Amino acid sequence: LPHQGTQSGMWSVYLGVVAGYIILCYNSTRQRCTHWLFWALLTGVISGSLCGWSQEGGLIPVNKQLWSLSFALLTSASGFLLLAILFVIVDHFNWWSGSPFRYAGMNAILLYIGHIITRHTFPWSWKPYNVTDHKELFLMNVSGVVLWLLISKVLHSNEIFFSV
């Protein structure tokens, strides 16, 4: 089926809107986190029920390639949970500034375009010596991410921001 992930994608977008709506409608950390944790539990239980609490089983198995409904709900549950945790750590208690992700978020479009342009060039990518071993591929991808984070830090330090 050519559009089998469309409905699941729409659910992911809708649940992202719900997360943003919670930020707009509730002022206290307790209210926001309570609602996010409720939605994390709800989407997690529905996802678990759909997949029979296993990756390969159930009515709708968790499948990233097909963007199954159980996968979309599972990632949404994880997102709600992480949003609640990071909100408490970053915004409520100010234990962490959000760096280096804050720098990347300030220039996300520029980093995306830069990645598209440079994704097959050195030092972001190279031909691995051993394609059966994932260590080199992992190292290549981690070094690419670190390089983009360094670029975003330099851009942030020089107050260079690109937005649409």
Automatic annotation (TrEMBL):
Keyword Plastid: no
The organism of origin for this protein: Homalodisca liturata
This protein's record includes keyword Membrane: yes
TM helices/strands, residue ranges: 12-29, 36-55, 67-89, 101-117, 137-155
Keywords annotated in UniProt: Membrane, Transmembrane, Transmembrane helix
Name of the protein in question: Heparan-alpha-glucosaminide N-acetyltransferase catalytic domain-containing protein
